[in-house]
Amino acid sequence: MNLTAGQKKTVLASFLGWTLDAFDFFLLTFLLTDIASEFHTDVPAVSKALFLTLATRFIGAFFFGMLADKYGRKPMLMLNIVSYSVIGALAAFSPNLGIFLALRALFGIAMGGEWGLGSSLAMESIPPSARGMVSGILQCGYPAGYLLAAVVYGLLYQQTIGGYTIGWRAMFLLSFLPALIVLFIRSHVPESPAFVEARKSVKPGLLETLQKHWGIALYAVVLMMFFNFFSHGTQDLYPTFLKKQHGFDPHTVSWITIVANLGAIVGGLTFGALSEKIGRVNAITLACLIALPSIPLWAYSTTPFMLAIGAFVMQVAVQGAWGVIPVHLNELSPGSVRATLPGFIYQAGNLAASYGGPYQAGIAEAPGGSYGYALALFAGVVAICIIVVIRFSPERRGQVMTVLS
């Protein structure tokens, strides 16, 4: 993968932005039971924060994407990262569940812009032959953020420093850290060459472009709905499953989650690169097929070691499929709205899938239910749905990207 120094810095900035965005999001998944305890409620009630964060992300994707298509990918990416950092940290000061849920909804708006901005900036800045690998790298930012959250949770949570025991509020203060990336972006990351070239010409508007390409946009939203069920349905409640159903301590929950996200990184890199050889559609199909036989090991094992193996394989499959998505959506999207449309499609799919967390928790805690059953049900059904739906997708591997197409 031959990239210039500027292109490498662009990919690194986009990767770090998505990594720390995911870090902020996944911190919550480790803290659901503790927040529920402090606010005298149950896990399904607190898990509505997951729903609100996912449901509002499409607003941020549209808002920040429109600004980026008008003013540039780089400045809007900087604004977006500062926004989600500050709002994420404010959750530490929530006096009650209502305020906490409101702040997580606002965090979702800020979080929603990053993926579209980062992926369009990277994909427009690199040669076509590098897109598959870079797509995998970018999407690996998500499990890398989850892994980082697991490490921080395992190392810091409930530790005593200077007589103060680190609780869930202190964990959210770590959300200030992503803002430091902005300094790197401002100093070292160039603007998208495609955007710079496009400023010399008149581009069609968003509504005009959507009218022309409404069919592929609608199809992609449905596809991303299933993809978001796939990722969040296998990730968000897994720490809760390990704690509540198996009674594991924070250290054990942390290392199992770390193993799972190492699998996710392996999957994203492997299938992103593989998509350059066998195509985007075939790579996604293969990844989803791998998920199905891993379900019994992942959801019904009883020992930490076997659960970790199952989690590793499951996330190889889940994030292997996801590793193809940044390049696939950018190749499907018209160039004039590339900062807006891929991110908006992604987050509109998130909106459609946003109630998955509370719904899963409700199944798990219903009489006769379990977290293992709820996880297995989601993973199996959604993997099959993606296999069916992705076969209808156009294949546009390697097409030239401009902002005027």
From TrEMBL:
It comes from the Bacteria. InterPro entries: MFS (IPR011701), MFS_dom (IPR020846), MFS_trans_sf (IPR036259), Sugar_transporter_CS (IPR005829). GO terms for cellular component: plasma membrane. The keyword Transport applies. It is a multi-pass membrane protein. SUPFAM superfamilies: MFS general substrate transporter. This is Sugar transporter. It comes from Rhizobium loti (Mesorhizobium loti).
